[in-house]
Amino acid sequence: MTSPTPSDPGSPAIRTRGLGKRFGTRAALDGVDLDVPRGVAFGFLGANGAGKTTLIRLLLGLARPSAGTMQLLGRDLPAGSAEALARVGAIIEEPRFHPHLTGRENLQVHAAARDRAAHGRMDGALARVGLAARGDEKVKTYSLGMRQRLGVARCLLSDPDLLILDEPMNGLDPAGILEFRQLIRELVAEGRTVLLSSHLLDEVEKTCDTVAIVDDGRVVAQGTINDIVRGGQRAVDIVCHGPVEAARLLAAVPGVLRAADHEGALRVTLAPEAPVDREIVTALLRRLLEHGVDVERVAPVRSSLEDRFLTMTTRLEDRS
Amino acid sequence: MPNLRLIQAEVLKLRRRRGMLAVALVLTLGLLAVAYTVGVIQHGGNPGRYDAPGGLAGFEDSLTFLSVMGFIMAAIVGSTAGSHDIDSGVFRDLAATGRSRTALFLARVGGAWVVVGAILAVALAGDVAGAFAFADGTATPGAGDIAQGVAMILVSGALGAALAVGLAALFGSRGPVIGILIAAHLVFEPQLQGAGFLGDARQAIPTSALNRIGDQATEGLDYRVALGTAIAVVLAWVAVALAAGAWRTRTREI
């Protein structure tokens, strides 16, 4: 029997260093350094095949890494995996169940693998995900959305410090997504950490505090959503008369990288060292007005997580 | 150590498979009932030609039948227990709890043994009742005969279930395992028993060991297995199957 490894309560919920996983000659993960702080909703973003699920499988002990180290809830893996995983609830890809059993019976099966108190948490978990009334129906009659909810209920049986949810919003209708988002925020408010792996950028942006973007097996960015979005290029859209002349004029303004037509407006892309919006917009307007160009509308472009994601990641067809 | 809560969960999963349970009951209790019914009709119609279906002779015949059918039933239940977590994808979630995979595997064995044992106990109770009810004045089995018969049937079921759980974990699916075990038990083992050139190595054939445990006649065979050897052979087969299944369960990437 492995002796439990000491847990460091001040450590991140998840920490990986140089983590790698190879399938033959293909590197599914390559030198991943990831820090997931405790008590946050952490978005793990990546396109299909980027390595999100592989990382989750390694953290949960479902596959062995080819290189690197991992810590879960302050315990080294794999030595401390039993103790760490006892405090983790996870949905990996689509939640799976025994279809011939009811929702409650499926939870009963799972509770048997958890601590003794898990059985007593079944009713509360079903109620929390809105399945209290359908818990005694066979899972084969459940919709995908109901199975997702049951998957979350299963996660809650261990009263987890960390929930790892892999694409949990698949199959949910808009109302279900909204409820799910609220549930995640409630779980975080209770002091739990939620790792939300997804390719639904909008949902991650609305739900999470902190994100990591994974691309082709590597973490290409991590931090708060604000930090990551701020790291993108700033721009200002201007609708004016004589856009060709305006573009020539604006390209000469200090702090402007380029000015080009963009969906009926003139998009002025700013250099990182450009002054704050108030100052640069004033400078741009002054330049145009001084040269007799009439301006109809000016709007700073708010960079979204989606914009940043698309600039950082490789499209599948571009991968060699 | 096998975990009682995990075994109970395993029994729940098997108990709720109504189709599989129906097949298991038909193969054992159902076919036994048919055999007795046919025997009673034949004996009633022509007692001079057909012996009574019960009594000691009938009991021994039914034990041979029940041993084979019990093994097949155990193969079906065991292969289901060994594969249903993997087939359904639930094994991944169970393994992600941090619970020892060996404990998860051993719970499947325990669960299969409970279900197989319960079905065989019902079938044996019916068999013993039939042996007395339909003896028609012939000698009835004594306590020793019954004990040996019960031991053989339960060991046959336990062996079949253990082999099936182990192989199902190894293959990750149920169908091939049932086919392999039925073919091995009904076709290959009788052929090997008759292959004289194998000499004493034939003592390692499961059927030989099971027959010895039940003190069943092995007509036409030129070797006999000692009881201790028979028990050791069964334990060895169980150990090999469980070790292989546990190894695959521990090392499987999911």
User: How would you write the strand order of the largest sheet of chain A?
Assistant: 6-7-8-3-9-10
- End-to-end Cα distance of chain A, whole Å, is 44 Å
CATH top level of the domain at 14-87 and 160-229 in chain A is Alpha Beta
- Regarding quaternary structure, what we see is heterodimer
Please report the distance between the alpha carbons of the first and last residues of chain B: 24 Å
Radius of gyration of chain B: 19 Å
What characteristic shape of chain B results from the CA principal axes?
globular
Topology of chain B as a string of helices (H) and strands (E):
HHHHHHHHH
The CATH architecture category of the domain at 14-87 and 160-229 in chain A equals 3-Layer(aba) Sandwich
Count the helices of chain B. How many? Answer: 9
Count of discrete structural domains of chain B: 1
The secondary-structure class of chain B comes to mainly alpha
Q: Strand tally of chain B, please?
A: 0
SS element count, helices of chain A:
11
| Residues in helix, % of chain A | 25-40%
**Gyration radius from CA atoms of chain A, angstroms:** 24 Å
Beta-strand content estimate of chain B: under 5%
Major beta sheet summary of chain A: 6 strands, mixed
User: Which stretches of chain A are low in confidence, meaning pLDDT under 50 for 5 or more residues running?
Assistant: none
Please give the most extensive interface between any two protein chains, plus how many residues each contributes.
A-B, 34 and 25 residues
Low-confidence stretches of chain B: none
